[in-house]
Specification:
Elements lengths: L29 E6 L2 H21 L19 E6 L7 H4 L2 E2 L43
Parallel strand pairs: 1-3
Antiparallel strand pairs: 1-2
Bound molecules: zinc ion (2 copies).
Length: 141
Amino acid sequence: MTTSSHAVPASEPPPLSGPACQLCGAPAVVHWQRRLTKEEFTAHLTWEQERRDRARELADPQYPAPDFGPLPTPQECTTSVFACAAHAITLDAAALVHRDTCTAPSPSGLTGCDCTPESPPAREPEPGASGGLPPAWSSGR
Ligand SMILES: [Zn+2]
Ligand SMILES: [Zn+2]
């Protein structure tokens, strides 16, 4: 038998299909959320409307028409912005939803951005945070 099987191990394909930095195209390592611009939201609405129309066409007429609820509003829609390590904004900034006018990642505003991100939703006090518990409730050590 001279079956010369290739000795190359099946290596995993490089993650070329993953998200890329929107500034330089390098593989993205971080992402954050941004509101849709008017054009993006209009396109999103059009897409959503077409999706619903198609679903209604394909729906079985024996059953009630599918109910999709109200169309999305700009307040409900965000899009992901991807960036490589070199063009990432700060972790604090990435935790917030940015304005539709935000230009990050931008070469002139590294680690920052030019918008005022929306303030985060009010946080629930963390359960189990120290304070308030009677001594017998702590686990001893
Ligand atoms: Zn980059
Ligand atoms: Zn921003």
